Amino acid sequence: MSGIYIHIPFCKQACHYCDFHFSTSLKKKDEMVMALDKEIQMRKSEFQDEIVETIYFGGGTPSRLQIADLRLQIDSIYNNYKVVHNPEITLEANPDDLSEDYLIELIKIGVNRLSIGIQSFFEDDLKMMNRAHNSAEAKKCLEEATQYFDNISIDLIYGIPNMSNEKWKQNIETALSFGVPHISSYALTVEPKTALHSFVQKGIVPQPDDEVAQEHFQILVDTLTENDFIHYELSNFGKENYFSKNNSAYWLGKKYLGIGPSAHSYDGEKRGWNVSNNTLYIKSIQENKLPIETEVLSKTDRYNEYVMTGLRTIWGISLDRIEIEFGATYLNYLNQQSQKYIEDHLLFVDENILRTTKKGKFLSDGIASDLFLLNLE
Fold first, then answer.
1. 319-326 vs 299-312: helix axis angle to the nearest 10?
2. Of 119, 365, 362, 58, whose CA–CA distance to 231 is shortest?
3. How far is CA 218 from the centre of its chain?
4. Which of 36, 195, 217, 284 is most exposed by smallest CB count within 10 Å?
């Protein structure tokens, strides 16, 4: 089973913290839609032995597209690939795009999961982040969306400067009041070349505080766990049967095809990424050339990736798999490196699977990098 990711590189406006690839101009929208359709067709040979289980529209803001644009891509996948009956089809959306009519039309074309970028229910946070919606729109959108969609995920950001623990709790409680079965939540990070980076450097916005972020993370974990959410990946919480199939496949090392500018692909041995430039992407596809760069992953690269994704998820790192797939040298190295974290109660081994403790979860990326900074080849 595998997945197809389609990157829609358009946004209404630039969020101050975002470093993803997008354009705020829709001038090239029609050309882009045709190019995406063509890339889907051009790459079918890569997936001729695969069965597509998930289709994911990410971005950017896929809800900037019209229904006909989205239908074209979905039809193209069905016409060129083997697709399971009732695949998970996710659309990332902003609250201000999700009118009732749009929601109804999405269902008609087969979209059955929404990932809505709420980020916060507070006006001052939304303004600071330069989100295109306001608090009232966030709530109205969820009231309507939950009438039509059962499988909804919302994004929330924590660690925002000047956000008290109380305010953060209110954000979570508001999210829970709508009964959504999945929440993705990320710490606000200051990425280079973003507006937020510039504001922090100029002292307009305070630098986000790691300790505050850690407190918010703990509040999030405790509150959602009490409300029957399973913390299945560092930033993702889902109720039983509501994990993101698309993202889970990525964390479990399954194959996926990335369509569109800046989209990444992985086939188990090599990784590829498309050019992050709309004009170059369109031009290349029109000339029947794939604008993709690839790298073959070494054994060490694959080990590092497995350690990173394993530690972030409830599935952990299988020590048996490390031995079978990578050999005794890797297993010995991992056992040696993880020992101090086990002694500090940040990692533990259960049934030959290495996982993070509750205390170690927030630090899992840092721990992982310590477990894989090596080159044994």
1. 170
2. 362
3. 21
4. 195
- Amino acid 356: pLDDT: 97
Q: 274, 291 in Cβ contact below 8 A?
A: yes
Cβ contacts of 79 within 8 Å, gap of 6 or more: none
pLDDT at 195: 82
Q: Please name which of 55, 52, 53, 57 lies closest in space to residue 7, comparing C-alpha atoms.
A: 57
* Sign (positive or negative) of CA dihedral 292, 190, 6, 29: negative
What local confidence, expressed as pLDDT, does residue 373 receive?
Answer: 56
Q: What is the pLDDT of residue 182?
A: 98
The CB density around residue 2, as the number of other CB atoms within 10 Å, is 20
Select from 115, 123, 104, 169 the least CA-distant residue to 142: 115
Instruction: Please tell me the predicted confidence (pLDDT) of residue 148.
Output: 98
Q: Strand ranges (DSSP E) for 105-167?
A: 113-119, 152-158
Distance CA 66, CA 19 (A): 24
User: Whose CA is closest to 55, among 1, 119, 128, 136?
Assistant: 1
**Single-letter amino acid, residue 279:** T
Sign, CA dihedral 259-236-151-82, equals: positive
Residue 328: per-residue pLDDT? 95
Residues in the chain, pLDDT under 50: 377
Q: Supply the DSSP string of 265-290, one letter for each residue.
A: EE-SSEEEEE-S-HHHHHHHHHTT--
pLDDT at 137: 96
For the chain, the distance separating the N- and C-terminal CA atoms, rounded to the nearest angstrom, is: 31
Q: Is-contact 264 10, C-beta < 8 A?
A: no
Beta-carbon-side half-sphere exposure of residue 130 (alpha carbons within 13 Å): 13
Residue 320 vs residues 285, 327, 351, 375: alpha-carbon distances, Å:
43, 10, 10, 21
Q: How far is CA 79 from the centre of its chain?
A: 26
Nearest-angstrom CA–CA distance, 315 and 368 = 15
- Do the Cβ atoms of 83 and 47 come closer than 8 Å? no
Query: Which residues are CB-neighbours of 76 under 8 A, at least 6 positions away?
Result: 37, 40, 41
